[in-house]
Amino acid sequence: MPWSESDGYFKPLRDMPMALLPQELIRFKRDGTQLTPAQIQTFVQGVTDGSWSEGQVAAMAMAILLRGMDTAETVALTAAMAHSGQTLTWPKTDMPGPVLDKHSTGGVGDKVSLMLAPMLAACGAFVPMISGRGLGHTGGTLDKLESLPGYQGTPDLNTLSGVVRSTGCAIVGATDQLAPADRRLYGIRDVTATVESVPLITASILSKKLAAGLAGLVMDVKSGNGAVSPSLDEARALARSLVQVAKGSGLPTVALITDMNQVLGVTAGNALEVREAIDFLTGRQRDSRLLEVTLSLCAHALVLGGLSHTLSEAKSTAQRALDSGAAADRFGRMVAALGGPADVLKDAQLPIAPVQYAVRAPRAGVISALDARAAGWAVVALGGGRRRADDRIDPLDLHVHGGAGRDTMDGDDAVACLARLHAQHGTTSLLATTVTAPLEEIRRALKAAKPLCEHRAQGAARVLGIHLEGPFLNEHRLGAQPSFARPATLDDVLALHALAPLRLITLAPEVSPHLELIAPLRSHGFVVQIGHSNGRYEDGVAALEQGATGFTHLFNAMSPLHHRAPGMVGAALAHARHAEIIPDLLHVHPGAVRAALRAIPCLYCVTDSTAAAGMPDGDYRLGQHTVTKCLGGVRLADGTLAGSSLTMDQALRNLVFELGLSVQDASRRVSTYAADFIGERERGRLQVGAWADLVVLDASLQLQRVVVEGEDIPLA
Prior knowledge:
By secondary structure, the chain is an alpha/beta fold.
């Protein structure tokens, strides 16, 4: 131990004002030592910035599970996690009612949040409900809502704030901006048998609620075999911890303990529970036990927020909001505002299980008990939950011009050749991408690509369809594209779609009549991106309002950001949820990539690869241009960057080793976000029911194995 002359004794290492290694902090907690607020802050910072490995975070979580934390430690942990990102404020001048919320510790079939948030909103409260995903055998509110096509479960904070103000409620997940430490810790706890720790549960729940800027919180602490806390004593301990820590953090909180010895309501499973919630709100079906729990929680929240004086009065108010249809209306408006079905009450567009099996009782009788925990694990096994912390390594590339010396525009077997090259580098699915050319050349390329869109070539990535990058671009922002830009018509697009499935269309919205064409294109099922555009900021905003949803290779070939003329880049940074970016460290400066990562929640990576990908330095074709690969870049003769030679495995390594992203975050940006963007919910993630696409990497993120739709791909 170091000597302290002023005190004349050996001062313990843990009390010295110095940075400690993760293993030292883990050892302190393992040995039962109370951690100081500064040490807890060090742990949370390591979780947030990725400087603590997944194994170290898991070890600390296990030490906390086994040794516990006192109230002071848990308050410090909660505060550090709440302030690990941005926090929300709700000025009273903007909000005519109290900002309230409810949170459940989780159970099987617990869909109360889906009804309670719109009920509170209909009663005059404002509800920014930050919810979680499934944890262990318990269902996740966010997972349930994301069974609605298009529902944006993790919007940026500006969108969240706007939806709460306009509809009264928004049920979303903790984004990378809001309590990011909890996002990572939550996933690790889920798969390391550390779910049941009372301090970790408390901090996880309350950190998101503190960050949301609430004025009051009602907790639903579940007890029973389907809950995280099976016994009543455990539930009481958790309820006591939640109330004490919340009050110690300045958040007025009430906790109710409710039964979870059987499924709550009549369904368990994401889409099924959303359907039951809609039926509950519209009055088609209301399970009596579910109704009682929901009304009780709503009543306590209304009293806590000063909207009712007594619980009896509050229950009557909540029942009127339900029976009048006001709560259902709030739910519908919220879903539409967050990108879900426009009229979810009439047409929720929920998925239907492809296999259904009726289990019939062998004889007449009455069900006396149900193993709710077993039912919850059955839902997980069927794809309604997660089995790994990352659960998502299945790279997609939505912008691939070529590879292996071949270009999409070459026709014949070019797409099969490039799809094999990219599969060898970890891409399991891709969009074959065109360049600007005469329509006849584009038609010829699409005809050649169509068979590959219908039947995957052996040893190749799945070709999901076509990214039509051109010819509907601005002739003044072509970049390396050949000079054949032209305005689009709906007939042109539909005629091309008849030749091969168009999945993604890039167009410049300022070119007439493109702005008016976006909505019809969307109605025909095409995803529209803004790109190769010289438009103003206002043009970008107008295009997004019309239904455009992304930006083609952000920063490149578009009007730049200036503080007096934000341009198309400014529109993307201010309003986009999705945008593609080329992380080869040539097309975009690392500082600009970091800015985009902060601004655009679901920024995803593309390679924009040309025929030069996987090939030695030399000359190659990009449409009608000759391009030269040299020293890692691909350029025209005048030095203009012309696509890239990037592959997706290198893109992942660049994100982690050059830009400092965690492996989990980087993985989402080469897989899940792109899959969700084009509606491929069965790709970009590892889960039951998804396509058997898999990439295995070693510690240095070098490829060890690639599997596409169950086929092992020979590596390069």
